[in-house]
């Protein structure tokens, strides 16, 4: 079941890449496994999936020992400062850095562990009231500040587009994030490594890929709908 879903997603990703004239390897699929049991993740792993996305530190901590060690964990959700210590060094990439205090805490925890944590700055491109993510002014300031944090490596930008029936309606949101990546690149410490765009979910990933996504975060289209109204 999950294996078939992954195959379908793979062919859709390949088609979107082809349509955009991009190599297939320029896009990585993050299987968003939040709220789903380790057994389902193991099935995806057996089908070849290695990148998984979670939005709760406790869930990463709980599932990690149950699964193979070569899984790459991605923290994609709102991260509280007091939980930073559980994800620094435990995740390949933290996608959701949206405030200075959060960046500072990640820097502090990474310094303590003598490692470099890769991060993305999350931007609320559409300016939705209900969404997390930095506004454009905050985002630029964050990029400039992270430049001076030796234990953070800024790899790019992330956004969650507004939910819409027709993904064409959010194409401009993705295009805007891509433009911001170019705009901010000269402000970064390692411009050549500032190359990741985390955008696109189950309903809109094809459009996101056409607009330059390098990391798509797909949950329900792989694992089915989530329960408890949680996301
Ligand atoms: C849950 C979640 C996703 C996956 O959403 P689906 O619509 O199930 O694909 C992607 N990104 C973030 C930040 C999420 O919280």
Question: What can be said about this structure in brief?
Answer:
The radius of gyration is 17 Å and the shape is globular. With 231 residues, it is an alpha/beta fold. 38% of the residues lie in helices and 16% in strands.
Describe the structure.
The model has no long low-confidence stretch (mean pLDDT 96). This protein has one domain (2-222): Alpha-Beta Barrel (TIM Barrel). The protein has 231 residues and is of the alpha/beta class. The protein contains nine helices and eight strands. The longest helix has 19 residues, at 2-20. Helix content is 38%, strand content 16%. The protein has an eight-stranded parallel β-sheet with strand order 7-6-5-4-3-2-1-8. The radius of gyration is 17 Å and the shape is globular. Pyridoxal-5'-phosphate binds next to strand 8 and helix 9. Residues 32, 34, 55, 76-77, 160, 201-203, 217-221, 231 line the site of pyridoxal-5'-phosphate.
Protein topology:
Elements: H1 2-20, E1 28-32, H2 38-46, E2 51-54, H3 57-63, E3 72-75, H4 84-87, E4 93-97, H5 100-112, E5 117-122, H6 136-146, E6 152-158, H7 171-184, E7 196-198, H8 205-210, E8 215-218, H9 220-223
Parallel strand pairs: 1-2, 1-8, 2-3, 3-4, 4-5, 5-6, 6-7
Bound molecules: pyridoxal-5'-phosphate.
Pyridoxal-5'-phosphate binds at residues 32, 34, 55, 76-77, 160, 201-203, 217-221, 231.
């Amino acid at each position: 079941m999950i294996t078939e879903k992954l195959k379908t997603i793979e062919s859709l990703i390949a088609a979107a890449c082809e349509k955009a004239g991009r190599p297939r390897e320029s896009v990585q699929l993050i299987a968003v496994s939040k709220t789903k049991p380790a057994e389902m993740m193991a099935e995806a792993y057996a089908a070849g999936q290695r990148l998984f996305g979670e939005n709760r530190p406790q869930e990463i901590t709980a599932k990690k020992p149950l699964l193979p060690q070569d899984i790459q964990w991605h923290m994609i959700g709102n991260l509280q400062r007091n939980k930073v210590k559980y994800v620094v060094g435990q995740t390949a990439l933290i996608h959701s850095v949206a405030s200075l205090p959060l960046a500072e805490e990640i820097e502090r925890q990474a310094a303590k562990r003598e490692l470099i944590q890769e991060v993305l700055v999350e931007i609320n491109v559409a300016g939705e009231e209900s969404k997390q993510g930095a506004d454009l002014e905050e985002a630029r300031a964050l990029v400039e500040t992270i430049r001076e944090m030796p234990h953070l490596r800024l790899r790019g930008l992330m956004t969650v587009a507004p939910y819409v029936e027709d993904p064409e309606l959010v194409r401009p949101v993705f295009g805007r994030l891509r433009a911001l990546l170019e705009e901010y690149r000269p402000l970064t410490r390692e411009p050549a490594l500032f190359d990741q765009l985390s955008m696109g979910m189950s309903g809109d990933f094809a459009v996101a890929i056409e607009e330059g996504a390098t990391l798509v975060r797909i949950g329900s289209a792989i694992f089915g709908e989530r329960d408890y109204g949680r996301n």
